[in-house]
Design a protein that fits this description.
Elements lengths: L13 E9 L4 E18 L11 E9 L5 E6 L3 E5 L2 H12 L5
Antiparallel strand pairs: 1-2, 1-5, 2-3, 3-4
């Protein structure tokens, strides 16, 4: 994938996706983190697009979260994709594996 969304990413890397939805007086924000399964452009069935084959092409990525859930994200100008460093990922796994102190 290109640097269009802030970093060069490849299938198999751990990524964090930030997305925002602007509202009148505030912003809804969300993030998802996991392994990048697929990335590229995909068609949508937009009848008003008047683009090639009457389809609107959207930038999409698929991320598999740690619990196995597959999340499809449509990327836009309010999206940011970051590669999660392996060290940070390993530290997070270790923290989850340690039993809680009593």
């Amino acid at each position: 994938m290109t640097k269009r969304f802030g970093s060069t990413v490849a299938v198999g890397q751990r990524v964090r996706v930030y997305q925002q939805l602007p509202r009148t007086s505030s912003v809804w924000s969300t993030q998802v983190e996991g392994e990048l399964v697929a990335c590229g452009q995909a068609q949508t069935g937009s009848w008003f697009a008047h683009a090639q084959h009457d389809r609107l092409w959207l930038d999409r990525i698929e991320v598999r979260k740690d619990d196995g859930e597959l999340v499809v994200c449509n990327l836009d100008q309010y999206s940011r994709v970051e590669v999660v460093p392996e060290q940070a990922s390993a530290e997070a796994d270790e923290a989850e594996a340690e039993p809680a102190a009593e």
